[in-house]
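Q: What does the predicted 3D structure of TetR family transcriptional regulator look like?
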Amino acid sequence: MYVGAVEEPRRARKKRLTRERIVSAAIRLFDQHGYDDVTVAQVAEAADVDTKTFFNYFRTKADVLFNELDLELDVLLAAVADRRPEESPGEVLRRAVQEYDAHRRPHIPRREPAELSAAARLALTTPALQAKWVYLQLDVQRRVIAELLKAFPGELDPITAAAMTGSVFGAIQQASLTSAQLGLSQDELWEAATLALDIAAHGLLPARRPNQGQQGT
């Protein structure tokens, strides 16, 4: 018997679209007028919602830009905790990131390159957003490090666990930000993140982009 795809419930779809509308309106206004000069009321008006609705979705103005950062982070932590006997710490990190990416990617709204670029520009140039970005990134890494140490009791020291985690997540973050700044598509951004994971997992020396070195042959 054929079973079709489960249709998104109407209420869930309405909530998702409202959230996406608020995010898009906020990024557009922040980019045009500056983050500090835009109020929550202005974002709400541009998204055609009231301020109460805004705060039903986001605690603060800054949360709008980082609303997808910790999307179902427990999936990532559970994947690290699910260490397989034959896996090394690096292999655990790589598999966990791959599983997390496969789980969350279908739930991330599609965004145009201009919007991705604007969001990256805001995160990198606005002091309040820079601080929020650094805090969230460090918090994610701290939680992953703790889970990695629990997965390898007596086998992995805190400094090595921190260095490995920082290498993986730092590579992914920088590749993603650079892709957004270059105006690449969302699919290209994800490809860059995958490349970054491979570089972090396999080491720097053999790293090269696909088809690199074939020019002029």
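A (community wiki): The structure tokens above were generated from the sequence. Residues 19 and 57 are 7 Å apart (CA to CA). The two ends are 54 Å apart (CA to CA).
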